[in-house]
Structure formats: C-alpha cells, structure tokens
Amino acid sequence: SRGIIIKSERSRTEKCIQLGDFVLIEGENADQPFVAQLLDFYEDGAQQKHAVVQWFSHITEIPQNKRKLLKREVSPQEVFFDQVSGYDNDIAVETIIESVLVCTAAHLYLQGRKKPQQFGKHNITMQLLYSFPNQICLRFSFSLQPLPGTPKTPRNATPEIPRRSHAAQKPASMLEEARLRLHVSAIPKSLPCREEEFQDIYNFVESKLIDGTGGCMYISGVPGTGKTATVHEVIRCLQQAAENDDVPAFEFIEINGMKLTDPHQAYVQILELLTGQKVTATHAATLLAKLFCTPGPKRKTTVLIVDELDLLWTRKQNVMYNLFDWPTQKHSKLIILAIANTMDLPERIMMNRVASRLGLTRMSFQPYTYKQLQQIISSRLNSVKAFEEDAIQLVSRKVAALSGDARRCLDICRRATEICEFASQKSTPEIVRMAHVTEAIDEMFSSPYINAIRNASLHEQIFLKAILAEFRRAGVEEATVQQVYHQHISLCRMEGMQSPTVSEIMAICSRLGACRLLLVESSNKYLHMRVRLNISQDDVMYALKDE
Ligand SMILES: Nc1ncnc2c1ncn2[C@@H]1O[C@H](COP(=O)(O)OP(=O)(O)O)[C@@H](O)[C@H]1O
Ligand SMILES: [Mg+2]
Single GO molecular-function term (predicted)? Predict the structure, then answer.
C-alpha cells in the first residue's frame, strides 16, 4: 500500500503513514487539531506534496440545528464524521501532525467496547452514539502521544513552517454557485425546520427494524413542504446506520404514484423491485399478499416508500387498502412510509373501524411559514453571500402567502439569480436585490396561461375555483366534470349567482380545454369525463387572487 513519511515536530520522530490512516492536522490552535482520514496522496507540478482527506468535525463546526438533534451535552473532544462537509479536502502534507491509530467505529461498536481501549500507545475511546442527517457521531478521546516512530531516512525535505495551505476552491462566480445550491435537485446539506419530523420518522423506522416488525406511517402535507426530501434523508441515514451495524440491514424500495400508468401497476413494480419477477398486476397482487402474509424463510425487513399515494386511488380502493393492511400482518416485516397530500385519505377510503384497526402512525407536515422559508433559502445558500436579506425576505413572504411551497420559493430565487447574473454581465457585478426578485416573481406569474385566466369569463374563473376546491376536498389532482360541477354550484350559491346549466358547464370545460388550461379526457363520457389542470394550482390561485 502507498505511504508517505512524515516528521513530527512535537515528538521529533519520523514515521510512515498510509492511506486509510487517521491523522491529526494542524488546527486553529495547538489543543484542537483537526482530525481526518487519509484518502490519497499526490505530488503536484511544483513538487508540493498533497494529501486528500476525509474530515471529521468538532462539535463547534456542526450547525446548531443538527447539534440539537443529539439531545445531549457534547464534549469538545468528540468529533463527527461529516459526509458532506464543504471544506477543501486537499491539504499540504506538511500540515499533518501525526497519525493516530483508530479502529473503525462499527468494529468497536460491535464488540461492545465502550470503555477506553489501548491501541498501541494511544488511548482511544470511540463509540457510535447516534446518527442524524449526514452525520455519524463518533466519540473519540485520544491522547496525543504518537506511536513509536519507524526511523527512516526522509526522502522528502524536512518540512519548514508547517502551514495549512489549501488553495480553497473559489466558485467560478458567487452567483453561479448560489444558483446551483438553490436548485431543487441539489441535495441540501441539511433540512432546516424539519428536524422534528425527521426524528420522528427515523425513530419509527428504526424501532420497527430493531424489533423486526412491520408498520405503516402515513405522512401528509401540501406539496413542497419537504415530505419527500425528509423521508429520503431518513432512509439515507438508516442505510448509513445499517452499514455501521447500528441497525439491522434492510431492503429499501420506492414507488411513486405519479410515475405509474395505472394504480394496479403498484403491485407489479413492488414485486419486480423485490424479486425481479415481471408478472401481471393480478398475479403480482397474489404473490405479494403471499409474501407479506405468510411466515417465510428468514428475510430482511423491507422499507417501502410510497410517494404520491393520493394517485393510487381506485374505485374499489384495493391498492391503498392492501398497502395499509400488509404491514399489519404478523410476519410481513414490511415498513411502509406512505406520503400523500391529503390528511384524511385513510378515513375516506376505509370505514373508520378498519382505519382504527390498522393503527396508522401519522405525521403531518405543515406549510412553511415565511420565517421558515427564509431560513431554508439562507441555509441552502450557506455562506454564499449572493442575496440581500431583503430579497430573501420578499420571496419568502410572497410564497408563504400563497402556499408555503419550498419548491416554488427555490424556483423564484434561482430565476432571480439568473436575472442578476445577466445584469451583472452588462454592468458591474452585483448581488441579488429586491428588484431582481420582483422581476422573477412577475415573470413566473405572467405566463400566457395566467393572462388567459385573468381574461377568462366569470363562470370560467368560478369553474377553475371549483376545480381547486374539488382537488383539495378529494386530495387527488383529478376530478370528473360532475364533481367540479357540484363545487361550482355551491360557489355560485355562496355568491348569490345563478348556476350554469349542464350544457353551459360542458361548454366552459371545453373552452378551458381548448386554451390548454385544462387537460380534458377525450371521450363521450359527458359529466363523467375527467379533468386535470395543465398548470400548477399555485398559478391558478395567483391568477385568481384579486390584487
Ligand atoms: N426544510 C428544507 N430545507 C431545504 N430544502 C427543502 C426543505 N423543504 C423542502 N426543501 C426543498 O424543496 C423542494 C421540495 O421538497 P419536497 O420534499 O419534494 O416536497 P414534497 O415532497 O412535500 O412535495 C425540494 O427541492 C427540497 O429539497
Ligand atoms: Mg414529494
């Protein structure tokens, strides 16, 4: 294996360190060296020796919101494995003080050694205490006595003034960096404002895994409240914990109602993900029932995410019913995290008696307040000072007033950044201000569709309001004309207006379909024809709001 000779100033010894070794690296002060693991060595064109490392963080480097999750006092000697640290991991070899011998956390933990252990001359206690978003917390306490050095003739020049000289990577441009961080698909370093939800879901799955039982958690909340992001983060952390033998290994699969052509395809997909078998929906349902309802040979627990559950609605409700029912079977070893937009879906699809037998664990995600949205944007931007505070506040207020949808918030910020970038090319570079945000908001809400809604007839506008009301009631973003018609009539009644006739309703519907505001099922089903919106509910709400 590859190694490199380092000379310790402190102990005046030299020794060879190798890839994978843990090392102490000069910190801000002598008492608190940084801790890292060596991943690679190389020499650059200027014969400068570099090391690539995985950093471990001291508690002071961990964001407050994550520290809170530990729910305990942390000693300054503890360090944390930081998977996504934003630090430069390329350092000059001279800054390495010495190596410490550490055996891996999982190894120690498995052996149940929680008392200080003797490793060579180093006293190292390390135990896996907890894992939370992206952080595996290890407890180290080490004495700084080095291992006996292996005397060797130094091949490299004696380090002169040891200095931590990492050429910090400057982003090509601050605005570009900000834009990337704000992208909805960028995985944020942390999920501020969702610590409790994270913890509850984590604990739910963890406890079932440990007990070897099954269960279903029903997670609801309007779009953009971070449900999907939080659940995925939980799974990531649990997979990490399983790798460290902190929780039993499990099989993870996911389906998404939005991506299925037909609700019954859920069975087909689940079976295929689990076993690789491709069969018809009916056959798949039978095989899955058999798998989850009969005690089988020893198998791992399955954790199944069912995202966009609302869309698995069928007339007989059997898909949803099975998803809620399987985990309650004694031998299922099935943990389902069902994510939906509607809160009372289980009640509506099942008789209450059944609903209570299933004993669902529930969690609801509240829409973000403007303060939370502000915090989410700021934390995404982290230390990139690309936005004026007022600008962030404006976006947050605007979105919180509409829907509290974090995705919408990020979209506006990203667009504002682009507008600012464009302006900066022409004149002096600047950061994103209120004016850029205002422009982005106007642009986002001034699509031809929005103008079409604003210029639509009164009854067409009421029809759109009726659609929103119906979607909200049903929790499904699709309805029949008849269902919308009911809403339409009650809206008219509230306004003291005359209700349109059935044929008038059909005419309204086809006009809205013709200008592509609606997607209308092409068939002769008349009032049973299904309709969907071709633009987001937010846009409709925005357009219909009288300013
Ligand atoms: N608390 C948060 N911190 C950072 N980003 C967030 C947070 N909540 C949501 N987001 C981001 O907003 C977007 C929408 O979140 P998502 O989890 O898909 O919402 P939902 O599933 O509730 O519709 C994603 O890009 C996600 O990363
Ligand atoms: Mg989602």
Answer: ATP binding
